[in-house]
């Protein structure tokens, strides 16, 4: 509903404006011709389904690149404001467990950031509880973090996050 209202505002002076408003308030599917008109105005060529480029216009999502423990690079879309552990688990990133449920009580969500991203994003500001768990993490580096303690921000668009080849569950320590 929100997206359709935004599109209505974008098409303020279009002939299809009234039809889109009617469809929006009736909560019915948009006719194929309106979908074609809207798609062409927003720069899309696909007509099969109603798609827009609003996620890139309003930057609600960012692209993240995870390198799993096997060295496979996985590109995913993450919503700004989401917890990075939840994003990784939803994408089934191999090696990111979060066994404690994101309570900073284990080190199974330990990941390694590239140095330039680590500094640019201000990830060096680490809570004392997280530091205690990181001390027990396998493959600790200067740019290691527990992803359960990190929120996705717009500045993360395009960063690469590496999963260590093994996990040490710090709860047993």
Automatic annotation (TrEMBL):
GO BP terms in the entry: P450-containing electron transport chain
Cofactor: [2Fe-2S] cluster
Keywords, comma-separated and alphabetical: 2Fe-2S, Iron, Iron-sulfur, Metal-binding
UniProt-listed Gene3D superfamilies: 3.10.20.30
A single GO molecular function term of this UniProt record: 2 iron, 2 sulfur cluster binding
Keyword Iron listed: yes
InterPro entries: 2Fe-2S_ferredoxin-like_sf, 2Fe-2S_ferredoxin-type, Adrenodoxin-like, Adrenodoxin_Fe-S_BS, Beta-grasp_dom_sf
GO cellular component terms, semicolon-separated: mitochondrion
Pfam family, one: Fer2
Domain 2Fe-2S ferredoxin-type, first and last residues per copy: 60-167
Translocase keyword on record: no
Name recorded for this polypeptide: 2Fe-2S ferredoxin-type domain-containing protein
Protein source organism: Clytia hemisphaerica
């Amino acid at each position: 509903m929100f997206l359709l209202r935004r599109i209505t505002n974008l098409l303020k002076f279009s002939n299809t404006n009234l039809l889109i408003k009617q469809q929006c308030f009736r909560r019915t599917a948009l006719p194929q011709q309106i979908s074609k008109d809207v798609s062409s105005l927003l720069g899309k060529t696909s007509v099969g389904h109603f798609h827009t480029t609003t996620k890139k216009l309003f930057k609600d999502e960012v692209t993240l690149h995870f390198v799993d423990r096997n060295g496979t690079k996985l590109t995913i879309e993450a919503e700004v404001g989401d917890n990075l552990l939840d994003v990784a688990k939803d994408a089934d990133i191999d090696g990111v467990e979060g066994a404690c449920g994101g309570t900073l009580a284990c080190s199974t969500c330990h990941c390694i950031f590239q140095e330039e991203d680590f500094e640019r994003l201000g990830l060096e500001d680490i809570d004392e509880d997280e530091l205690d768990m990181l001390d027990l993490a396998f493959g600790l580096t200067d740019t290691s973090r527990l992803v359960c303690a990190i929120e996705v921000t717009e500045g993360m668009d395009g960063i690469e996050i590496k999963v260590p080849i093994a996990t040490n569950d710090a709860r047993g320590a």
